[in-house]
Every structure is written in structure tokens, then in C-alpha cells.
Amino acid sequence: MDLRMRGNAKLKGKGKEGVSGLKGNCIVAQSGGPTAVINESLCGVIQEAQKHKEMEGIYGAKNGILGLLEEELIDLRKEKTSTINSLRTTPGAALGSCRYRLKSWSESRKDFEKIIASCRRYNLRYFFYIGGNDSMDTANKVDQAAKRMNYQLKVIGIPKTVDNDLVFTDHCPGFGSAAKYLATSVMETGRHLESLYDSETVIILETLGRNTGWLAGSCALAKRSEEDAPHLIYFPEIPFSLDKFIKDVKEVYRKIGGVFVVISEGLRDEKGNYVYEKKDGVSTDAFGHPELEGISSYLKEVIESRIKLKTRTIKPDICQQSAVHFASKVDMEEAYLVGREAVKSALEGKSGCMITIRREKGKVYKRKTSTAKLSLVANMEKRIPPGWINKKGNFVTGEFVEYARPLIQGEVAINIQKGLPYYPRLEKREILDKW
Amino acid sequence: MDLRMRGNAKLKGKGKEGVSGLKGNCIVAQSGGPTAVINESLCGVIQEAQKHKEMEGIYGAKNGILGLLEEELIDLRKEKTSTINSLRTTPGAALGSCRYRLKSWSESRKDFEKIIASCRRYNLRYFFYIGGNDSMDTANKVDQAAKRMNYQLKVIGIPKTVDNDLVFTDHCPGFGSAAKYLATSVMETGRHLESLYDSETVIILETLGRNTGWLAGSCALAKRSEEDAPHLIYFPEIPFSLDKFIKDVKEVYRKIGGVFVVISEGLRDEKGNYVYEKKDGVSTDAFGHPELEGISSYLKEVIESRIKLKTRTIKPDICQQSAVHFASKVDMEEAYLVGREAVKSALEGKSGCMITIRREKGKVYKRKTSTAKLSLVANMEKRIPPGWINKKGNFVTGEFVEYARPLIQGEVAINIQKGLPYYPRLEKREILDKW
Predict the structure, then answer these.
(1) Which terminus of chain B is more solvent-facing, meaning fewer CB atoms within 10 Å of its CB: N or C?
(2) ipTM of the complex, rounded to two decimals
(3) Among all residues of B, which ones are annotated catalytic?
(4) What are phi and psi of B351, to 5 degrees?
(5) Which residues, numbered 360 to 399 in chain A, qualify as contacts with chain B under a Cβ-Cβ cut-off of 8 Å?
(6) B14 CB-contact burial (10 Å; exposed 0-12 / middle 13-18 / buried 19+)
(7) Which residues of A touch B92 (CB under 8 A)?
(8) Whole-angstrom Cα distance, residue A161 to residue A177?
């Protein structure tokens, strides 16, 4: 395939720089694990970009940065307005996502050259990357590569992660909806368990969260009285001791007659080793993160063998990242907002930064957006502040609940067809050269 | 505690038999694993019973049959109308449930004598038991014990099981809501997986269903196009072969680039043995059913070691039995209906039977209720008809989908407070003798 042919006649704009700023095409991509609201951010970018004449063409990169490496671009102006709008309440990454890792300039030089060559060929001048910490690292490296290669490109990161662990932002779009879904599930399964304490006494619900316990902690929102689930929550931030865990479970059992435990997948012992970690060839991802399958089953076995209480496990896994059917309206709105703000920031001439959300002081929840340098955000992780976990290390404090509560507010109307959600796909998903 | 004292002054009615039938108190109980709609049936019983003067007192047995064995009765007339109404959309069994097994007359004679003694003491003349096949066995035995002991008692079973495996009824209340929740989850997680086929290629979602594949099959409702999840479904009804499974997964992977597999927890090999079954002292329930923890993790390991495709597992477990937040309206209505019909049947003089749902012929879904003998229903299991599973044994046919589709229709408005469902409990949960 002649790559030069692909980028010719069909592209709008010629990279002029008007008084109002850089002119050219923009590209948006999604990276890492999708969230329930990741497409809100995509739509925020598209719909804001459509308002500005500097943004001539609006393209989507297929599967994150791979779309630029493999020159698989989608012309988003060809999509119907109604399709774009209905994507806002659709799970998964509408453009496709990836977990591709860009290494250092010297190690990944070929990749950087390919990426900037694609930008030149398609006259891409605005680059919006929606993702979490690994993705912000990618965006940061693209920004640096463009500068190094004297290619004028505005790179803006758009925060997205259910893990809620990006630094410099009060919280991350995606977290609120995952928290709402998890808290609701804990409420429902807790009530179920309560009916059957005599025969099924312990539940272990395993949330995502390899290094941080934001999602596990958010399950506390379900609790309105002492008898309500959850009764115990364990965090990667606090060294996990099996003996203490068993003691905690026994104590709750004596008091309440049943025990609802929430654990974060990434529990570690005092030495910092995962409490349960499979080691085989397939079980690490592209970023070298270890596979954590099985922690809840392991703890179930420990409880059943040590204290003979029948235990069930629940592993919602990617349900918590994709449950649009009960998403948080606040989260949806904020995901859209950060997409729009990314476009505005780029047009103001900013580059190499990520949009952040700041919470204003006061009893009523208010936020505004700001930006933080990608180089400071990339690969960093925000953990739960120590004061937001109780002294026993087995529940959150009121501060955590006050922090999380505003983020799960409001419900979202979704399109239902024949009893099930209608989740559209982009209609013209052919890559650019096919048109 | 003097048991005789407990049943004295506070009971209404004196067991008179009017022209219109038997007069006395009625008792309702919930048994087995709750469903999202189990309290609809409870409310159906209560609200219908309130209309009839033959039903003098309306009591709930705490934790199923245990409430009669241990004389823990709740006076349901003391609950506010608003509480009863709001229970209709509350998960878990509001009265508590149990998995207690009554054996044969000779083996469990003491239990039967206690139960009938309780009935006499509290002048209970109508006994409504909400549950699945094991619970219908309990109801049947209570009916027989009453006859044997010359105690006039009308016993009616009210069908409830997400497993959808009761015989003589077109379907079971609880199934539709579980099916709607599972199909929605498959739709959402399927779209998530699709975004990341490059790095996470296979999903195994494990549904409940020890002996029947109704829940696994219902996930097919999520599929609207070839690329849509699920791609493969495996049933307890069809002997499972690991080699064939791997072949199926490889075939879908080649065609689509990713594979969404749904499995029922109770997969068996050609000899009828569970494909994966843990054997230890704690892992059977009161009915001797084996514990099936781990089948999805096991198959994940098989895929990763044999064909090196990264695999994730999802185990919604009791989420599928309790997800009121996205329940089926049709299912809710039918659960209420069978509760009401139970009362009407008892007043017509019926006993020893279960309410059934019949589907009327025609393109538009219509149903009516009928009854079946408990002795024929108890401990039987309805499996998926062979013609409703495809020849390869790895998906359902159109007949299955046509059957299941009407049962998931309609959404239910739930009470939301501060971003999460409001699920009340009975207010006066003290047992009878305390008042």
C-alpha cells in the first residue's frame, strides 16, 4: 500500500497558522481500559472542535496510538450528528483502544518518527489523548517527540480512569460511574446475603484497583446503617495481614451474623508483595503489570478452611468499567466537559498538559477545570490519603464518603430497544484511505 | 421461654370455617436464593390477603420454614402500607430465607410435628411458600404432614427462581430480571472487550445454572449482529469437551479477533461429572449441591496455556439474582401476580399445588396463570429443550430468543436517594411474642 497516496487529496486544510492560532486537522484517540463515560469525552472533543474553524478536519485514531502508527484514521465529520450523540451513552471505546507502550526516545525512535510522519502527512496539528496514567505517558512522549522533530503539534491529555488515580485532578472521569455501579451492587448483593446468613455467611466482592483502593473504598457509599453491607473493606494502600483479616471477619460475624467483605484486587503484604499473584507467561499486560486473577477465590479458601464459614465470591470485573445502564450523571457531564476543555486549551496554545478537575470549597459540590503538565502526571499514581482509611485499615472514614458522594449523583436516560440498551457503533468505521 | 404464652391473646380469628371457606390466619415465607422480584410475590400475597375476610391475620415466617420451626413470626398487618409497597422493588428476601431441608416423614418427623404445632398454636390455615424446586419439596411435605396430622391447612407454592427450571410453568418469576441484567452486562462488557481485542482477547462470563442453561442462554439476547457478544455459550445440558471448546474459541478468534464466551457454572463432561469441581468439607450446601467455584478461572487457564490468548473472567454471581436497579417490568408484574393468585387459589380451596404461568399462543406475548401439583413439581428440573440449542452445542437457536425476549421487557422505576437506590427493610421485624 502506498502510504503517501492515502494522505493526499481528501484532507482539508493546509497547516496555516491564523492570528487566532494554529490551523489544521485534529486527531482524537482513546487508550487503556475504557470506562462507562469514555465516549462522552470523545464526543466533547468532536462537538467542541466542530465549533472552531482552526480545527479543519476531525479524525479519530483507531485503537489509540496504534491508529497513528498504522495510519488507521477515521473521518469523524462523516458520522451523523445523531450517531455521535448516541455514542455519549455507549460503553467501550468507540474508536477502539490499546495498551501499546512507547518507550524512551532512543528505544522507540522508529515509533516516534512514524507518529510524527503520520501527523505531517495528514496535517494533524491537535492531538487529544483520552486515558489514564499510562496513556498520559504516551501523550507526553508524543508531545516531546513533536518538539524534538520541530513539528508544531498541540498535545492535550484527557483524564479517564475508573481507578481514580491520576494526580493533580480532584478525581477522574469514569470513577463516579464505576463507584455508583459498585455501591449499588454491594447494596443489592448485601441485601441478598442478609436473607441467607444461615447458609451463606460471607461474601467477598473483588473490585479493580491494582495499586489504589478508590474503587474498593467507594463501596462504602452503600452503607447507611451498621447492618448494611459492606462491613469490611481492604485496600492496596494498607499492608494486608491474613491473621488480622480472619480476626476482622470473625468479629463482624459475631456481631452481625454475616460478613460482606470488599477487597481491591491488588492487596499486598507487609513486604509489598501481592497477597495472591499468578506467575505464568501470559499473565502480564503490555505495561508489565502482573495478573491478579484469583485473590477473592484465595481468600474464600482461607476463610472456609480456617473458620468454616461458607463464602461466595463476586467478581464484577469489567462490568464496573462499562455499566452505562446505571452511570452517574455528574460523571457523564464531567467526562464531556474535559473533552470540550481539551479543545479549548489547545486553541489557547497549550500543549503537553492534561485537563484536570478542581473541586471548589464549600458544602455544595462545584468544580472547575484546569490543566497540569503531562510530564508531572505521567506514570504517577494518587493513593487514598492515609486519613481517609480508618485506623484498623478495614474501612474508609467519613471524609472518603463525603469526597465520593457528589461524584455518583444523578441517573442517565439511555436508549432502550426491546428491553435492552441500544449501544450504537460509529457507522463509517472504514479507515481513511478507503473513502 | 413458654411457647404457649407466645401464641395467646394477640392472635386474630378462631379458625372458624365460613360458607366461603376456611377462616384463620395466613403465613407467607420465602425460601432458597432470593431473586430481584421475590418481594413482589410477598407483596402480592399480603395485598391480596388483605382483601379477604377469611384471612384474618397475615404473618410472615422469618427465614422460610425455620420461622415455623423456631416460632419466629412477624405480624405483617403492623407494617405500613408504604413499607410493603416499597418492598416490591427491594432485593433480598424481606422476611429472610433459608436452605433448610425437610427429609421424609420418618426422618424429619420431629420437624413436621413442630411445624404443625406452630400452625395450630397460631391458627395458621393458609401457608404460602415462595421458592424454587427445593422449596416446592418443602411445601409439598408440609401439605402432606398437615393431611397426615388431620390439620386443615391450605398450602400453595409460589414459583421463584432465576434458574427458570421449575416444571409445569412456562417460566419462573426471577428469571426475566436476571436475564435482562445478564444480557445487559454482556452487551456492555462485550463492547468494552471489543475496544481492546489486541491486548485482552477473550472474556469468560460465568452465569448461575447448576443443571440448566437458561441463564447462560439468556445472554444471547445481547446479540444483535455477528460481531456482538456473546459469541459462544455453553450449557450444562450439553456434554462439555475441552478440545471442542478450544476449537470453537480459535474459530471465533480467527473470524472476529476476540471471543466473548458465556458459560453456565454447572458444565459437565460426557460422563456427567462437573468439568471443574472443588472438593472439600465446606463446599456443599444444605441440599448437598456441590460447590462450583472456579470453573471460569479454570477455563481461563486452559485458554491461556493452550492457545496463548489473554483471557479475563467475569463472575456476577448473586448480582444476577439481586439487580433490582435494572429489573424487568414484566417479571416484576408476574411475580406480584403469582403471589396474588396463590391467595385466590387457596381461598378456592386448593392445596398442595404451585401457581404456574402459561403462555398463550400468538405473536403478542400473553399469559395466564394455572396450578400444578406440588408433588409433581418438587425436585424436578426443566432443562432447555434440545431444539433450542444449536447443533454445535455452543449457542441457542432463535426459538430460545423468542421465548426469552418477552420476559425481559420494560424497566422499573426505583426510589433513588443521594444517587443510590433506596431499599427499605420491614420496620417491625421483631418476632410476634415481643408485641
Answers:
(1) N
(2) 0.93
(3) 163
(4) -155, 160
(5) none
(6) exposed
(7) 188, 190-195
(8) 11
